[in-house]
Amino acid sequence: MSIVRWSPMKEIDEMRREMERLFEEFFEPARRRRWWGGRPSAEGVIVPNIELYDRKNEIVLRAEIPGVEKKDIDLTITENALTIKGEIKRQEEVKDEDYYAAEIRYGTFSRTIPLPVEVDSENAKATYKNGILEIVLPKKEEAKPKEIKVEVS
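Structure (tokenized):
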């Protein structure tokens, strides 16, 4: 039997890697988490994936929220943030023992997205089609880029 030298740094490094794995797993969108075997869980963090981009005079936000009905979506827009709330409801009740796999999460969700510029919330428009929520937020006049022509004499 050989003697193995104990290294506290090795144990600390292993603990650090395990903590990183736990944080990555916790903050990963719930719909990407996998469940195989055991009891299916409807619990979990539901985080809609988004796209946020600039379209000259407006900001466009697109969010993936499949399985949500239009009536279950609630939007709150301020000058510098947008909050999307909703609920994904179970279509039918299935006994736990009848599941082979359960990756869909059910329940309420809420996500607040900070906006890069001030927007005119009064003139915002939202559409929902095929599980994609699209919100068009006109920029406030002060936030729009201004073009100034310089005359050369």
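The longest helix spans residues 8-27. Residues 30-42 have pLDDT under 50 and may be disordered.
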